[in-house]
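Troubleshooting: if your tokenizer reports a length mismatch, compare against these two reference records.
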Amino acid sequence: MLLGSKEWWEKAKEVVNGDAEYFEAAKNIHKTYTFRVEAEPENGIPNDILMGYKIDGGKIVEYWDADRPTDFVISGPYKVWYQIMKGEMGPIKAMTMRKLAIKGSLPELLKDTKATIRWVALLQTIPTEFHGNYR
């Protein structure tokens, strides 16, 4: 499943919404997020990829692939997102080392660290195809 595709998001929703550990960590989260995966034309990714979603009470209730206002916008090069998805870099490290740029309150985002780490671990279980030269 191609990263960010409808098929990928449907699987992400199924995996995340079915996980008791994630639910416990995220049950008080009611936020919207946009991931802006920045273009890397030199690696076969000509345009930014937008992935947005809403968490309401520990469940993904909506996702989209367009630009719209959200509580947080997390952006960075495709390579960084790839490294996170492959387990080569942790999401919190990527944020605190400024490999990913954050629009929104970083302290507020970091208070949900446990949920973020579990979210990424769950996404890493999805058979994911990557864009461009990333395999």
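Reference record two:
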Amino acid sequence: MLRLDLQFFASKKGVGSTKNGRDSESKRLGAKRADGQFVSGGSILYRQRGTKVYPGVNVGRGGDDTLYAKTDGVVRFERVGRNRKKVSVYPLPATKEA
């Protein structure tokens, strides 16, 4: 009797599922405004986990450690001591009208 044992295409059989292929969505942390930039009150300045950067003048800290501007003004990132950073918002000086 004639027996044909042909395989035309390369194939893989019986492959189990993989344990890889997952990742968490990025949280988009970090500075949201640059040094010297004008911001309005309530603007988010820095998103962080823990206190990587501390709040300075006219800056508040939210429940998730997000730093935000309390008033309108110019953003300044400052160094406090050797290894501590803070962000402040300084209001623009009022202009005199003649």
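Descriptive notes for reference record two:
- The domain at 30-90 is CATH 2.40.50.100 (OB fold (Dihydrolipoamide Acetyltransferase, E2P)).
- The mean pLDDT is 91.
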